[in-house]
Amino acid sequence: MALRRKDIDLKAGTVRVERTLVEVTGRPLHFGPPKTAAGVRTHPIPAIVLPELREHVKKFAQDGDEGLIFVGGKGALLRRANFRRNWVRALDKAGLKDVRFHDLRHTGNTLAAIAGATLPELKERMGHASDRAATIYLHATDERHREIADTLRAMAKAELKGKKRSGTQRARKQKKRS
User: What is d(CA 60, CA 70) in angstroms, rounded to the nearest whole number?
Assistant: First the structure.
């Protein structure tokens, strides 16, 4: 993905993905469409990231609507090899090891799932056309299971407040009505 200035709306806090940078060994870099139509999408940027992104754009992005947001040290397109060197250097500086860049996508989408994103929402966020690809991010966690149990408890408590019949009794009564 090679974002241009026109792909990011810093006032609205959104990013639009509509193309990808294709790098094939022995061939020149070129822009092309995402793998599937689902890859074209617009999403909000978390507000906590916007101040840093604004600063990055001001200091490092190329000029003009077509100017790239993320470029190499000399202002050129990021190639896989020099991105990897910079990534490893950044990990060392942060005291992290064995973190692949793609792990950020996995972590972000897993957190979105924990925050309650549904399968269709995850597919849209990631630009996936298939359920299978998006299901990878739907990890169950002990914390999420506790939240579900607490929500079910609160729902049951609210429903049962002041009522003496059990849930089964109420369900049977509703079934008789229909």
Answer: 7
Q: Other CB atoms closer than 10 Å to residue 3's CB: what's the count? A: 19
101-127 pLDDT, tens digit per residue, is 888 888 888 888 888 888 899 888 888
Pick the closest to residue 30 from 18, 41, 19, 40 (CA basis).
Answer: 19
Residue with tokens 């003009």: 64
The model's pTM: 0.67
Amino acid 59 reads: K
CB 112 within 8 A of CB 137: yes
The secondary structure of the chain, three-state, reads: CCCEHHHEECCCCEEEECCEEECCCCCCCEEECCCCHHHCEEEECCCCCHHHHHHHHHHHCCCCCCCECCCCCCCCCCCHHHHHHHHHHHHHHHCCCCCCHHHHHHHHHHHHHHCCCCHHHHHHHHCCCCHHHHHCCCCCCHHHHHHHHHHHHHHHHHHHCCCCCCHHHHHHHHHHHC
Which positions ≥6 away from 97 have C-beta within 8 Å? 91
Assess contact for 40 and 17: CB atoms under 8 A. yes
Look at 33-37, 42-46, 94-98 and tell me which has the smallest mean pLDDT.
33-37
